[in-house]
Design brief:
Layout lengths: L5 H15 L7 H7 L10 H10 L4 E13 L10 E4 L6 E13 L4 E9 L3 H15 L20 H15 L4 E6 L7 H11 L4 E5 L4 E4 L2 E4 H8 L3 E6 L5 E13 L4 E10 L6 E5 L6 H8 L4 H11 L11 H20 L2 H8 L7 H22 L3 H15 L24 H5 L1
Parallel strand pairs: 1-5, 5-6
Antiparallel strand pairs: 1-3, 2-3, 3-4, 6-12, 7-8, 7-10, 9-10, 10-11, 11-12
Helix pairs in contact: 1-2, 5-6
């Protein structure tokens, strides 16, 4: 939630909604939002509540995931920037990591919380030095002891639990069915705590293939168990309430040693895949097919990330400095996603139980609506020509053309030809 006076924030968000519905011309309401700072990411409480109320939301599924955003290699002032593995190139970049909480409902999907992740600098430095000394052959007892994590740098799991608790505190009337998360959160501490927060039994995550389970008093890893002892059968699954796909599925209630308790473990391998992926569920009374189909909803967070980065502005506009600056841009980009859910044409589709429009198409339609509205206002003005001149001056002020570093015009390309007096060097 925002820091500061909650009543003021509701008033501010009311002004935003009034602007959107045409009840006020005070566009400064949008600027006021960017000045508010998010303490942990339950951003725009009033806006989120408005969307939930407008669409009659009473229950849903919470999905947790994290997303990286590459930044400049030399930046020092963008909040939370740290060294990250670059998936495309295989190298490393500087970037930000955001842990995001997404609410998936029968009708719509919307972001409801975020937190910036920052690695502990002391732990990072220790890990680097420990690897160097280990490679040099130094025994573990002679290497420096791992330092205690600084509370100012919580883990992703700790941030995720805080987001879940913040959502529960703010929207306690929303009934949460399962909580879904990837393998990073597949540990007992997270899964049990998430269950307690919402007074539910079902939290679904993933396990690695080499994790050890106990079966008939014998220990073996998941891959060995499901490939030799409990082989899967072919089934047809419904993915996210739509497409039917073929898969090989098996399941068992097994003691997961790393978690110290029995869990329902599901092995699923979609058609064309060679290896199983392993789901783990806290509520062992759910059917295997229901667990798999519920977990397919986690893919929706990937769709959101794509829309968020491509259309909704996070990481693409001007970079503001420090924690407050980063929070401003991120909050505004997420508010944009909320606003599109309240677009009249989107609302009409949802109320009539028709497929919702994509973010990209709604954005383009809204841009053209604004253009048409401007032209209409211009034509209705007493002096259209004079009004157009005023606009031209504003356009020149706001949309300034910037010099490009790609083109060499006005610069020396250098001497790009051989030197006759050096020909003997080539011959020798």
């Amino acid at each position: 939630m925002f820091d500061g006076n909650i009543a003021d924030q509701f008033g501010m968000l009311g002004e935003i909604r009034a602007c959107e519905l045409g009840r006020t011309q005070d566009r400064r309401a949008f600027v006021d939002v960017s000045r508010s700072k998010s303490s942990l990411g339950l951003f725009a409480f009033g806006e989120c509540a408005l969307v939930l109320k407008r669409h009659g939301i009473t229950e849903g599924v919470l999905v947790l995931d994290e997303s990286d955003r590459a930044r400049s290699k030399r930046t020092k002032r963008i909040y939370g920037v740290h060294k990250q593995k670059h998936k495309v190139s295989g190298g490393y970049v500087n970037g930000q990591t955001v842990v995001l909480l997404l609410l998936v409902m029968q009708t719509v999907t919307l972001p409801v919380g975020f937190a910036f992740y920052r690695p502990d600098p002391a732990l990072t430095a220790w890990s680097k030095e420990d690897k160097r000394l280990k490679k040099a052959g130094m025994a573990k007892k002679d290497r420096p002891v791992q330092p205690v994590r600084d509370s100012r740098y919580p883990t992703k799991t700790q941030l995720a639990l805080r987001l879940l608790q913040a959502f529960k505190d703010a929207h306690g009337d929303i009934k949460i069915k399962p909580v879904l998360a990837d393998a990073l959160y597949g540990e007992a501490g997270f899964m049990d705590t998430a269950s307690r927060i919402f007074d539910i039994n079902q939290v679904i995550s993933q396990l690695r293939e080499n994790q050890i389970i106990e079966y008939k008093s014998k220990k073996r890893n998941l891959k060995a168990y499901f490939n030799t002892i409990n082989k899967g059968i072919e089934v047809t699954l419904q993915v996210r309430g739509g497409e039917q796909v073929k898969a090989t599925v098996s399941s068992a209630r097994l003691k997961v040693l790393a978690q110290g308790k029995k869990r329902l473990v599901v092995a699923v391998k979609y058609e064309g895949e060679s290896d199983y992926r392993y789901l783990v569920a806290t509520d062992m009374t759910w059917r295997t097919m229901d667990i798999i189909q519920a977990y397919t909803l986690r893919w929706l967070v990937e769709v959101f990330f794509e829309d968020w980065k491509l259309y909704e502005g996070w990481g693409r506009e001007a970079k503001q400095l420090d924690e407050e600056g980063s929070s401003r841009g991120l909050i505004l980009s997420l508010l944009f996603d909320h606003c599109l859910l309240l677009h009249p044409e989107q609302t009409a589709r949802i109320e009539n139980k028709l497929p919702a429009y994509t973010v990209g198409s709604l954005q383009r339609k809204s841009q053209m609506d604004v253009l048409i509205e401007f032209i209409k206002t211009l034509l209705e003005h007493q002096n259209p020509a004079e009004k157009l001149k005023e606009l031209a001056v504003l356009v020149d002020d706001v949309f300034q053309l910037m010099p490009s570093g790609k083109h060499m015009v006005g610069r020396d390309l250098g001497r790009l030809e051989p030197t006759a007096s050096l020909q003997y060097r080539a011959a020798g």
